[in-house]
Amino acid sequence: MDPPSHHRGHTRSGSEAHGGDALDDHDSRRAPPGLELAEISSATYAAANALVVKPEQAGFVAPIGKTLADADAYPECLFRLAIVADQPVGYLLLRPAHVDDYRVVSILRLMIDGRYQGRGFGRQLLESALAWIDTFVPPVDLVRISAVPRNQRALLMYERAGFRRMGIEDGEIALYRPTAHIRPR
Hints:
Distance between the termini: 28 Å
Radius of gyration: 15 Å
Order of helices and strands: EHHEEEHEHEE
Number of helices: 4
CATH class: Alpha Beta
Helix content: 10-25%
Largest sheet: 7 strands, mixed
């Protein structure tokens, strides 16, 4: 099945991203208080490129440069910055796909800059991502996220958000969560 049309990964000009139909209607700015999701722009590009994790976390998530390159290389990817008080504090990269009969969105990257960790922004970014995914049309069935086994803080946060470990994929622990679309109410 073909992936849906949607906003491109990011834009450096501040203009609207290249897009299609259904996902253009999503409000990616809806977020818990204090954090909003935003496309990268000329005003945020330099600050976004300065985002880094703590040195001991370097193997946990790809740097921003690789993430932006991946967003460009894979047009189905959706890139957003996590913004707090007009300052980028992290980023998110999603990739919609179809697996068997399920519409799945993989959270490929979820990163909070080392300077902003420990303030709940990682949890808020994950909640924002899940709320945004719940608005996708057509509806998403499953959300996938993964982490290296030694990133226990991330794995615990994902499990607290309702993700369940489903095995090892590409050397990382893969976790899945049904969306509101298919969860019993």
